[in-house]
Design a protein that fits this description.
Distance between the termini: 61 Å
Structural class: alpha/beta
Helix content: 40-55%
Protein name: FMN-binding glutamate synthase family protein
Strand order of the largest sheet: 4-13-12-11-10-7-6-5
CATH architecture of the largest domain: Alpha-Beta Barrel
Number of helices: 20
Low-confidence stretches: none
Radius of gyration: 28 Å
GO molecular function: glutamate synthase activity
Family: Belongs to the glutamate synthase family.
Mean pLDDT: 90
Largest sheet: 8 strands, parallel
CATH topology of the largest domain: TIM Barrel
CATH class of the largest domain: Alpha Beta
Number of strands: 15
Transmembrane segments: 12-32, 38-58
Strand content: 5-15%
Pfam families: Glu_synthase
CATH superfamily of the largest domain: Aldolase class I
Length: 550
């Protein structure tokens, strides 16, 4: 019994010893402040504050650890709060950080600031580790191109084709990004000759202020071109789509961060500027449905593409999607064949993409990663003979010339980047994008935090990052003995499968020949998905794979 009491007393001492010491310190310092030096009043203030924290810990009902270990338990929350910063700045090595490691971020920062970006003493990558990749080079390299690489976008039905840079700013909405960030991105795009995608939040005054080329993204909420009930308004769309600054229109079907998921901006966050930009009433929830109300079938989608192209005066109109069911991608291809209507371009967003916040399960486990999604869309277009009429873009973790080259080798005509351009604005990856408290003023509408983002300075960095990254791509193209990124093929990129096995990408993935899905679909790996695809329905016309047992 006595031993049990001793252990119990020791346990109580461990739990409450610090709290009792603080209370005793408060009492002693208070007494000493009256009988000796007044300096003890400062000690009393410290001890008294800690004692009040301890009292709160003991009496609060929500945290068991704090009730059982007053004051001591609070230390856990302090370290938990600072853990991300300690890890990023003190404990992570240069290659282990996620979603972007220190080397990638440092490369963007250096190129944005026109600082030295060359690497001394060889690569830090383990060239014998699985997943290591490299480009093949030629023994007869070509001269490095001095002209920026461009891509012409616009099929036969397009009256106003657009010449795009091979690297552009991916979709980021006003509201998700603050006005200073939007202005800096657009000013940088104007100076660098590349385009700025609005994101689905609408075409704001900040997108238009500096005159940079705009790709207007239409999500399911049709912000900026909607009726009072949220349906699509042709008149309002036409009014803005005819602006000279708007070069292309992009229909967003899904995005990498949260594919298949809608969104709600609470009415309390609908500011007068957001209300004006999006065309939604002040004080009411701003809803982005999970699907488009303007069409319900693949054929209907193609007809919507044709309608937008006509209303915009013949500008290129395309689709953006994160790949989900393969049969739905093939259904889109079948709808193009059935209607004769082609989108001018398709942007494939990888599931690894995303600049804002998303439900954990969707961000981690829904949607196809960029490489597999890009190859699937490439095969759907090539296998149906549509690829010559439809341009293809890649979006997802593009930070360097090599990441661009790898995407182009498997089918992309150009690349879009979002988070890399956020880094060029000064983003430090504090992971507070969704809180409205971004410390660098990028993803916040708080005017006090936005003050830290000087538009003119950051616009120069946006332009500089683009210039140096496209220049790095030009170096790679020349080293491979090629003239243009369009000359890249899958066999130009090799992938290490294991420490003793490497393969070019064309031996790791399936790349269909032209018209393969038309001439002999059963000879392709996509036979079941192709047979299930229906131009008149997003739902498959038959089951793909075995049914679940009853």
């Amino acid at each position: 019994m006595g031993e049990w009491m001793d252990e119990s007393n020791k346990a109580l001492a461990r739990r409450y010893g610090v709290f009792i010491f603080v209370i005793a310190g408060a009492l002693i310092s208070l007494i000493l402040s009256f009988v000796t030096e007044h300096v003890f009043i400062f000690a009393f203030c410290v001890f008294f504050t800690l004692a009040m924290v301890g009292v709160f810990d003991i009496t609060q009902p929500n945290h068991s650890l704090l009730r059982n270990y007053p004051l001591i338990g609070s230390v856990r929350w302090i370290f938990e709060a600072v853990r991300p910063y300690l890890r990023q700045y003190l404990m992570e090595d240069d290659l282990s950080g996620q979603p972007y490691n220190r080397d990638d971020r440092s490369l963007v920062y250096a190129r944005s600031k026109n600082e030295e970006d060359r690497q001394p003493f060889g690569t830090e990558l383990d060239t014998y580790a699985a997943e290591y990749e490299w480009m093949t080079h030629s023994l007869a390299p070509t001269p490095v191109s001095e002209e920026p690489f461009r891509v012409s976008i616009g099929g036969p039905a397009c009256a106003k084709p657009y010449s795009a840079s091979v690297l552009n700013i991916s979709a980021m909405s006003f509201g998700s990004l603050g006005s200073h960030a939007i202005e800096a991105l657009n000013m940088g795009a104007k100076a660098g000759g590349f385009y700025h995608d609005t994101g689905e939040g609408g075409l704001s005054p900040y997108h238009r202020k500096h005159g940079g080329d705009i790709v207007w993204e239409l999500g399911s909420g049709y912000f900026g071109c909607r009726n009072r009930d949220g349906s699509f308004s042709p008149e309002r769309f036409q009014e803005r789509a005819l602006l000279d600054q708007v070069k292309m229109v992009e229909i967003k079907l899904s995005q990498g961060a949260k594919p298949g998921h809608g969104g709600v901006l609470p009415g309390a966050k609908v500011t007068p500027e957001i209300s004006e930009t999006r065309g939604v009433p002040m004080g009411e929830d701003c809803i982005s449905p999970s699907r488009h109300p303007a069409f319900s079938t693949p054929v209907g989608m193609m007809e919507f593409v044709a309608q937008l192209r006509e209303l915009s005066g013949g500008k290129p109109v395309g689709l953006k999607l994160c790949v989900g069911h393969p049969s739905e991608v093939f259904a889109l291809a079948k709808a193009m064949l059935k209607t004769g209507i082609r989108p001018d371009f398709v942007v494939v967003d990888g599931s690894e993409g995303g600049t804002g916040a998303a439900p954990h399960e969707l961000a981690d486990h829904v949607g196809m990663p960029l490489r597999e999604g890009l190859i699937l869309v490439r095969n759907a277009l090539v296998g149906t003979g549509l690829r010559p009429e439809v341009r293809l873009a890649a979006s997802g973790k593009v930070v360097s010339g090599f990441s661009m080259a790898a995407n182009m080798a498997i089918g992309a005509d150009w690349c879009n980047a979002a988070r890399a351009f956020m880094f060029s604005l000064g983003c430090v990856m504090s992971m507070r994008c969704h809180t409205g408290a971004c410390p660098t003023g990028v993803t916040t509408n708080d005017p006090h935090l936005q003050r830290g983002l000087v538009i003119e300075d950051k616009a120069e960095r946006v332009t500089s990052f683009h210039h140096h990254t496209v220049g790095a791509l030009a170096d790679l193209i020349a080293a491979a003995g090629l003239e243009h990124p369009r000359d890249l093929l899958p066999h130009h990129v090799w992938h290490r499968v294991s420490p003793i096995e490497v393969k070019p990408l064309d031996r790791l993935y399936t790349f269909l020949a032209a018209d393969a899905l038309i001439d002999a679909p059963d000879d392709t790996p996509y036979a079941a998905e192709w047979a299930a695809a229906d131009a008149d329905s997003f739902a498959p016309r038959r089951a793909v794979g075995p049914r679940r047992a009853a």
